[in-house]
Amino acid sequence: MDLDVFVSAHRPEWDRLDELLRRRRRLTGDEADELVVLYQRTATHLSLIQSSAPDPQLTARLTQLVARARSAVTGTRRAGWRDVTHFLSSGFPAALYRTRHWWVPTALLSTAVAALIGWWIAAHPEVQSAIAAPEELREMTRPGGRYETYYSSHPAASFAAQVWTNNAQAAAMCLVLGAFLGLPVIWVLFQNMLNVGVGIGLMSSAGRLDTFLGLILPHGLLELTAVFVAAGTGLRLGWTVIDPGARTRRTALAEEGRAALGMAVGLALVLFISGAIEGFVTPSGLPTWARIGIGIAAELAFLAYVYVVGRRAVQRGETGDLDPMERSTSAPTAA
Question: pTM score, two decimals?
């Protein structure tokens, strides 16, 4: 594309759009229609220049012009309760459903890794000895030992807040670090599965695996699912860097990155629920079957939220991304 010829042909449209945006009086109906048309044309011009003949100065001018025009066309708006309701009923479950092909396999593989680590530790006393001294292992695994008292070592409210903060940070790391080809996500996930596997192995070697599962399952089902979702989404974001598909890499990363940020907010709410269960239900005096039943109910409710509410939201066209009018304006470009 000859940039000079392109600029000469379309500069009058850009100048006219700038003139309309500077008007202090209310635009007439014809002028408002003209502004919308010029806004759409200028957005297309910007996309063509960015993809074919990028010029920093011209790109900066048109970017500013398009942003001002979009603000004039769409108007300013503030997030309200309607946005929160839409996010929880459509945006978040749609994003969960769309990424299920990533986080479900992640969950299955990670669970298998944790079980394998647990078996390896339980079956090899020399590995147990490398973890801690025999007296320390007995202190951790005995009735009333550290594995059991951990969940009642602090007041329930402060413990739940601490657990929520730690898990939310781990989930956020998975989502944010996913852009680095997903490699840091694998490390964070492995560390979580290693901790679970060590607990399984040590308590199993002491003949108290049932006690351990009774302590971890009430909150662990939902908590680990949230971590798996974050890890799967992070891996998906990393794969987008490698293979953006039909979209440009910039557009693909912008869309998936925005969806990942929304996932971070939604998963913080999920982890808040699991943290409350860990703080108030896990150390409670309820029978083991009742505590595990609460954990299973929370997990089934989450899966229903994904596969029922999320599937319906996707069928309505929801993606978990911003509303089209709130996204950066772009036009299709040649591959």
Answer: 0.69
